[in-house]
Design a protein that fits this description.
Elements: H1 3-17, H2 21-24, E1 28-29, E2 39-42, H3 52-62, E3 69-75, E4 78-83, H4 85-99, E5 113-117, H5 129-146, E6 151-158, H6 163-175, H7 178-183, H8 185-202, H9 204-218, H10 222-245, E7 252-255, H11 260-272, E8 276-278, E9 284-287, E10 295-299, H12 307-322, E11 326-330, H13 336-348, E12 357-360, E13 365-366, E14 369-370, E15 373-374, H14 378-394, H15 397-402, H16 406-423, E16 431-432, H17 435-439, H18 446-462, H19 479-501, H20 504-524, H21 532-555
Parallel strand pairs: 5-6, 5-11, 6-7, 11-12, 13-16
Antiparallel strand pairs: 1-2, 2-4, 3-4, 8-9, 9-10, 14-15
The structure holds arginine (ARG).
Length: 564
């Protein structure tokens, strides 16, 4: 962003200090607080001999104003540089206008590939809060990598295999309806699943039958597999439509059922490498006690395999198919131990991608429920959020009449409320699901961010002048305008650090700061009715803020709204 200014500072400081230009450049960055200056040099990073505070003082005294850098002041071990405001403002706002949707992005990851396993619900079981968080965070992780030039492959690794699917098939024979299945496969299969579990509690033979059925599936029995395949296909179709509503697309639908072949190879490798311990009852495990990870069961005594066993195969399969540079699993912290075991086994096998695996975990959501009770399906939560936002929108009849597609707008607002609540704090924190708090237009919520975006859109719509990147920005004299410019100039850094931490809250916190600064500035800086040159300067400012707000919302996976 401030490349020219940084280059000039680096040139002079290098001359004054004798430190190479290359070594000075990384020590120059944005200060924490712009009260002191617009760019800061962190003197200890120059690794010079002597007292950094004294060195900072001397450097500041000797620095000569140049290239719109109007002065240098030492504060402790920092040298702060002031840059001429109109010059900064012009360069920041022009950069935004030139880059548009690409503002803040880089291509540094070009040629690299990321695989992200996220959402990954279990067919016929509830889509719980953990799956919702995985969906939201996983999508963000894809986006933030794409914003840095990476190729991201999203994988939905369904829970679609195991004894429970034997139970489900038997249940379908008892309670199933073709009509209900095509109508809403997810709900219908869940209903059967619940009934069968109840039946199995009453009668132990039900479980034996389910096991036998699943055995047939594992042995590749045609009719048994055909029924399961239908359940799976119909469920995926339904999932796809719900994800589409969220604007999420998976490159791949995989699942535990899809990795048998690589899993068998993995088992063989484990046997060959002598890592397997055979128990008296015939079950097999990998002893990870030496790593304080317990004993990991990989094959039950009846010969069937486990979630963990399949994950080893799945990891190999992904590497073979996508030769990833990084492979991320976005899964609730309840499974941290599982992933530690998985990664350790992959390492013990000496697989070449062992150091490319990453588990991004997150805390618990308490009390996610709708009017009808605990949430079972993703759709219910989306529908309720939508309905609530729709009724808020209706409160303002005049505005409501102007909204082009109220249904879709209400839906987007509902999703914004859910997403922002979810991403406001660090991932690992647990939080309480709270309808009132998340839907409030005034607080730090999703609807508030969208509302700010619509206000900026409306300013552009109503303006009597066009957005002009060459507007005279020296007319933007107010601090409230400069605050926005400063925040905008930080966006590329914020994006870069969100990429490092994979914490969506970095972006959310930034968005709130920007939205507050915009709300404050909108009070005083009118566009309509102002002389053309002033109107153009302010419009350029607000239009740039709108671009950045939209970019950051999109990065979080939210579609920015134009009217509400
Ligand atoms: N289906 C699993 C669950 O609901 C999550 C799968 C996560 N991905 C994985 N490769 N294990 O708990």
């Amino acid at each position: 962003m401030f490349e020219d200014f940084k280059a000039e500072i680096a040139r002079q400081i290098s001359e004054l200090s004798g430190v190479a230009v290359d070594a000075v450049e990384p020590a120059i960055g944005l200060p924490n607080d712009t009260v002191h200056g617009d760019l800061a040099l962190t003197v200890p990073r120059l690794r010079m001999r002597g007292n950094p505070v004294q060195i900072a003082k001397t450097l500041a005294e000797q620095f000569k104003p140049a290239c719109s850098i109007t002065g240098a002041v030492a504060t402790g071990p920092y040298v702060n540089f002031r840059i001429d405001r109109p010059t900064i403002t012009g360069s920041v706002l022009r950069a935004v206008q030139a880059a548009g949707a690409k503002f803040g992005t880089t291509t540094e990851g070009a040629g690299k590939r990321l695989v992200v396993d996220f959402s990954s619900p279990n067919i016929a079981k509830p889509f719980h809060a953990g799956h919702l968080r995985s969906t939201i965070i996983g999508n963000f992780i894809c986006n933030v990598h794409r914003a840095h030039g990476w190729d991201a492959v999203g994988i939905n690794y369904l829970g679609d295999w195991g004894k429970q699917y034997g139970l489900l098939a038997l249940g379908f024979e008892r309670y199933g309806s073709e009509e209900a299945l095509t109508e809403n496969p997810i709900a219908h299969l869940f209903e059967i699943y619940v009934r069968m579990n109840a039946a199995a509690k009453e009668d132990e033979t039900v479980n034996d039958d389910a096991r036998a059925y699943f055995r047939r599936m594992e042995d590749g029995d045609g009719p048994a597999l055909a029924l399961w395949q239908r359940f799976r296909d119909l469920s995926i179709e339904k999932y796809k439509s719900i994800y589409a509503r969220l604007g999420i697309n998976f490159e791949v639908y995989s699942g535990e059922s899809q990795v048998t072949e690589p899993m068998l190879r993995a088992l063989q490798m484990l046997e060959d490498s002598g890592l397997v311990v055979v128990e008296q009852d015939g079950s097999r495990l990998v002893d990870l006690e030496a790593h304080r990870l317990g004993r990991a069961l990989i094959r039950k005594r009846d010969g069937t395999t486990l979630y963990l066993t399949r994950d080893i195969g799945a990891a190999m399969d992904r590497y073979e198919k996508y030769s990833f540079d990084k492979s991320v699993y976005v899964v609730a912290s309840a499974q941290d131990h599982h992933f530690k075991q998985l990664f350790k086994i992959v390492e013990a096998l000496g697989l070449p991608f062992a150091d490319r695996l990453l588990n991004i975990s997150f805390g618990v959501v308490r009390g996610m429920s709708t009017r009808t009770g605990e949430v079972v399906f993703l759709e219910d939560i989306l529908n309720e959020a939508k309905a609530k936002m729709h009724s808020v929108m209706r409160d303002n009849e005049a505005k409501y009449a102007n909204v082009v597609d109220p249904e879709r707008t209400a839906d987007l607002l509902g999703m914004s409320a859910i997403y922002i609540q979810d991403m406001s704090a660090r991932r690992i924190k647990d939080y309480d699901f709270d309808w009132d708090r998340m839907l409030n237009n005034q607080g730090d919520t999703g609807p508030y961010l969208q509302f700010t975006h619509t206000r900026l859109c409306s300013i552009e719509r109503m303006a009597h002048v066009p957005v002009n990147p060459d507007a005279d920005v020296s007319l933007l004299t107010e601090d409230s305008a400069y605050e926005i410019v400063t925040l905008i100039s930080r966006y590329p850094d914020v994006l870069a650090s969100a990429f490092k931490t994979l914490e969506p809250c970095n972006i959310v916190q930034y968005l709130f700061k920007l939205a507050h600064a915009v709300s404050f500035a909108l009070e005083g800086l009118k566009v309509r009715g102002q002389p053309d040159d002033l109107a153009q300067a302010r419009l350029l400012l607000f239009s740039s803020a709108r671009v950045v707000l939209a970019n950051a919302l999109s990065l979080l996976g939210l579609e920015p709204i134009e009217r509400m």
